[in-house]
Design goal:
The protein is α/β, with parallel strands linked by helices. It contains 6 helices and 11 strands.
């Protein structure tokens, strides 16, 4: 079974991470929710007040993941950017040729800040380090197959971003089946 590690930091954008968790679960992907906070607990509060009890804290996560997903949200992206543990996980993921996905502020604040978007086609929320992304694209969702990086522009693209991740993990037919079940006209 394919699996996805979803990072939940205090201040992460509610819609972006919730859409990913929901859509990937609908598509048969094992979703592992990892809390990223200072107190080591499994509880986080997202940007708009949603409180989430994750499967565990990032420090407890030991598995190999088919993809690691980082939501945006300014405060959440800053927490992710400043986490040495997450950066180590992302670097390992990259070095081992597995996918990383980031949306909204996270491509610029997390991936670009740690040199992971050099030469990579990407998008991000306008103003969130987009000037530093060398191959910035105007699209809502961008996949750089060579770099194995998926980026999304912001909350309005949360569902297409999640469906793109699902297609990468489970194939086009599963994406279409999930989209149809959600009454999405693709």
């Amino acid at each position: 079974m394919k699996n996805a590690l979803l990072i939940y930091a205090n201040g992460s954008e509610d819609l972006e991470i919730t859409a990913c968790a929901d859509i990937l679960s609908r598509g048969g992907v094992q979703v592992i929710r990892a809390a990223l906070n200072d107190d080591g607990s499994s509880k986080v509060t997202l940007a708009h007040g949603t409180v989430v009890l994750c499967d565990g804290h990032l420090d407890e996560m030991k598995d190999t993941y088919d993809i690691i997903v980082i939501p945006g949200g300014l405060a959440g992206s800053e927490h992710c950017r400043d986490s040495a543990r997450l950066v180590k996980c992302l670097q390992k993921q990259k070095d081992e040729g597995r996918f990383i996905a980031a949306i909204c502020a996270a491509p610029g604040f997390v991936l670009q800040n740690h040199g992971m978007l050099n030469g990579v086609r990407a998008t991000c929320y306008p103003g969130c380090n987009d000037a530093a992304i060398a191959d910035l694209q105007p699209d809502g969702v961008v996949v750089d197959e060579k770099a194995k990086i998926v980026t999304g522009k912001g909350p309005g693209f949360a569902i297409p971003f999640a469906l793109t991740i699902l297609e990468i993990l489970q194939g086009e037919s599963v994406r279409k089946q999930v989209a149809k079940g959600m009454l999405l006209d693709e």
